[in-house]
Amino acid sequence: MSQRRGPRQDMLPEIAAAVSFVSGLLRTRGCVSEQQLQVFSGALREALAEHYKHHWFPEKPFKGSGYRCIRINHKMDPIISKAASHIGLSVSQLYQLLPSELTLWVDPYEVSYRIGEDGSICVLYEATATKPGSSYGALTCKNQLMLGRTSPSKNYIMTVSS
């Protein structure tokens, strides 16, 4: 019998920010009840914790960034579709309820997103690294995207309340 371990405590705020954001997107469309949103949120939180448990490196926040990236672009992210299946939402329904182009980066100390291929990158959650030698200057997939921009990115802080 295998014993399940809970999510790492150091990733809970980042996962909570990501779950709140995606749930908030579903909430704004008004097609999902509050009870369904709670079930979806719980399923998404559990799926993200399981997916990230061996790919979370607080000492190197951008290591594994591509693995933790949630993406919708002509293909629904499997983690979102799995959580949505708990409330009976199909992939085609998700395409109607969520942006057709969405990138959500869930990294230690920062959660950010971009809607559209040329949209601005907006920060949902930001915390200070506990170790002074963190690798915030590393070239991540998000930083590479920003380097290729023709116009400067604008950073906004958006909060999603439940």
Automatic annotation (TrEMBL):
Start and end residues of each Anti-proliferative protein domain: 52-72, 98-117
Domain of life: Eukaryota
InterPro entries with a match to the protein in the record: Anti_prolifrtn (IPR002087), BTG (IPR033332), BTG-like_sf (IPR036054)
BP GO terms, sorted: negative regulation of cell population proliferation
GO CC annotations on file: cytoplasm; nucleus
Alphabetized Pfam families for the sequence: BTG
Entry similarity comment: Belongs to the BTG family.
Protein name: BTG2 protein
Organism: Eolophus roseicapilla
Gene name tied to this protein: Btg2
